[in-house]
Every structure is written in C-alpha cells, then in structure tokens.
Design brief:
By secondary structure, the chain is α/β, with parallel strands linked by helices. The chain is 46% helix and 10% strand. 33% of the residues are buried.
C-alpha cells in the first residue's frame, strides 16, 4: 500500500478541458463589458453581482494597451502585476514623476519623461504608471498633497485595483464552474493520473482556486488544501475572499510598499494555513510486535510549472520529506513531476534548480527521489509510482 499526494496547478484544469487560462479570463473581461451572452447575464443576476466597479481595471488595461509589445508574457497576469509593482517602487525611490519647478506632473514633463524611460528596463510598465499618475493626479485633486503622500495614494490605487482584479477572477471562475458542472456536465479527460489507484483517496495540495479534482475524481475536501484559497461567491458577508493572487517575495527584508502584492503576505492575511504539512506525515502499518513498515509516499505534481513564485511552498514540501527521512531511514518517497512537452520539462528542471539548488537536484534525481513523466503517459506513470 502507498500514500499519495497530488499537487495540482492550473495545467490540471486545462487538461480537463476547462477554460481557466489567463487568456480566457482576459477575453471574458472584454466580453463582460461589450457583449455578455444570455447565460452570463442570468448568472450575474442570480448571484446579485454588479459589474461596474470592475470596468477599466488598471492591470487588464495595461495588458490590453501593451499586448503587442510585451512578448510571450503578455497573458501572465502575475508577471504583469510584478512589473507594475516594480514600476511604482521605481518612482517612489526616484522622485521624477513631478516637474522639478512645479508640484504637479504637467503634460510636457510627462512626455519628456516617457521618452527617456523607453530606454529603461520594464519601460512599458513605467510609462503606464506615468500616464495613470497624471490622470489620477488631476481626477482626484492631489495638488495639495505632499509628493510622498501622492505617491502613496498611487500605490494604494494599484493595490485596490488588484483586489478588484481578484474579485473579477473569482466571478469568472465561478461562472466557468457553473457552465462546466451544471450546464455541460463535463467528465474527466485521459491523463497519466489514470494510472493512480483509488484517486479519490489521495491528498490534494491545490494551487488552483477551483475544486476540479473534487468534481471529477471525488477527492475529499477533508484531504484537500487550497493553498491559494478558493472561489466562493456564496460566502457570508462577513467572510473575506480567500484567493491569493500576487507576486514573489524577492527580498529578505520586509518592504511595506510591496508587501500587499506578495503571496506570502496574502496567505497570512487570508489565513489559507499550512494544512498540507499534515499530508507529508508518514503512514505506518502496524503488526502485533510493533511498527512493521511505513508506506511509501508518491508526491505527484500535475499541471504546475514549479514557478519560483511558489518556491516557499515547494521548498517546504522537500523539507518535510527530508525530516521524515532523517527520522526513518526506511521511509521511501518520490516526487513525480509531470510535463506537457519537452520545453515544459526543461522549464520545470530549471525552476527546480532555482528552488533547490543544483547539487540538491542532482542528488534527488540520482536517487530517483525526483523523476519526470509526460502528462499523458499512463504507462510511464505506472512505472514511476512507488508500490
């Protein structure tokens, strides 16, 4: 008998033919304010949702205005959030948004500044911030404010827009749940996961906001940890949106300006907890004379790029199995990373090297504690599973 942990990323939902890509969400936002279909309007009415406050979200506006110049990253909202947060910090550290002789960002100064910024790294995010600071400055009458206070208000505007973006994402994913599980009644698609015996009894560390594994494989809520929170439009008024959506913590020191954007901070505020740590505890089979053996543990990562944005959680997972291994030399475990194609495999390996360090990664792959299986290779998964 073995113990199994599933670690699920958005690639799992996509493999189940669900429209949960960022590109799907961005297209939904366009449709929402231009040509919403009948089912969507009925859904919004049933949930008593007013959409006006979500119009012209700054993050989606940045993407839509700069899509042709942002390269392959244009649809990765987390990267876009990081670029805009970095741009705001740049202007807080370099007081150049204002004309030197006036306490305002007049048009001539702003145009000259944007021309200079074109040569900088992260140029388009900085230019977007310049334009929106000028717009907000006059709309909200920040003329009488000290410069540092106005810049703090600018940062707060972007933080507020991030909260609204998260709310809009919750609405979208809830609508997709409605379509997939109440209208279309989708079924699971074939993947390497079909090789896992008794999938419904696995533990699930879920990076998604949706409970797709619960709907399609009947995984237990008690054995599932939504590490980044989950969608719940039916929560009571007093309960907060638990969805964590932000950027990597790049510094050891706490940056009070950046902290609201960062995932670890949001996890603390939204109390998503550390329930998943319990999943890594060994399970023992007892005999009449004591402990006979501990069950092997298969830790299967499906649909997650192992992006360093989530490095703290993955580092913790490896640390937890190290602790058990030190206490019990007979304990066997294996991390099985699934990948969509060869470029995705190379990306996962690169990210693991960043997260674990190259020496640790070489050690773990050498001992077969870390292996790789194509996401549609059921036979390969059967061979990789510890029994």
């Amino acid at each position: 008998m073995t113990d199994t942990i599933l670690i699920l990323g958005n690639g799992f939902d996509i493999a189940m033919d669900r429209k949960t890509k960022y590109t799907d969400f961005i297209e939904f936002e366009k449709q929402l304010f231009s040509n919403p279909d009948e089912k969507l309007l009925e859904f919004l009415k049933a949930k008593n949702i007013s959409i006006e406050k979500y119009k012209d979200n700054l993050y989606l506006k940045f993407i839509n205005e700069n899509k042709d110049t942002l390269g392959d990253n244009w649809s990765n909202l987390e990267i876009m959030i990081s670029q805009l947060a970095d741009a705001i910090m740049y202007f807080k550290e370099n007081n150049i948004l204002y004309n030197e002789n006036m306490n305002e960002p007049n048009k001539r100064h702003s145009e000259g500044l944007k021309e200079k910024l074109l040569k900088d790294n992260n140029a388009y995010a900085k230019i977007f911030v310049v334009d929106n600071f000028s717009k907000l400055f006059y709309e909200k009458n920040w003329r009488l404010l000290q410069r540092e206070v106005a810049l703090e208000k600018l940062n707060n505007e972007f933080i507020n827009q991030l909260d609204l973006l998260i709310e809009l994402l919750e609405i979208y994913l809830s609508y997709i749940d409605f379509l997939d599980f109440e209208v279309r009644n989708i079924k699971s698609k074939p993947t390497a996961l079909d090789a896992i015996p008794d999938l419904s009894h696995t533990y699930v560390l879920n990076f998604n906001y949706t409970n797709t594994s619960g709907y399609l494989f009947e995984t237990s809520e008690e054995r599932t940890h939504f590490i980044h929170g989950r969608i719940n439009l039916d929560r009571t008024f007093s309960r907060i949106n638990t969805m964590v959506f932000g950027i990597e913590d790049k510094e050891n020191d706490v940056n009070s300006d950046l902290i609201p954007y960062q995932k670890y901070y949001q996890r603390v505020v939204k109390e998503t907890g550390t329930k998943f740590e319990e999943f890594f505890k060994p399970v023992y089979e007892y005999s009449n004379v004591g402990i006979a053996k501990s069950f092997p543990k298969n830790i299967i990562i499906f649909g997650h790029s192992v992006d360093p944005l989530d490095k703290e959680i993955f580092q913790n997972c490896f640390k937890l199995v190290d602790i058990v291994s030190e206490q019990n030399r007979m304990f066997k475990y294996r991390f099985i990373f699934t990948y969509f194609d060869e470029p995705a495999k190379r990306s996962i390996i690169k990210n693991l090297a960043i997260i674990l360090g190259k020496e640790k990664l070489i050690e773990l792959t050498g001992k077969q504690n870390v292996v790789f299986v194509k996401s549609d290779d059921m036979e390969g998964m059967k061979d990789a599973l510890l029994l």
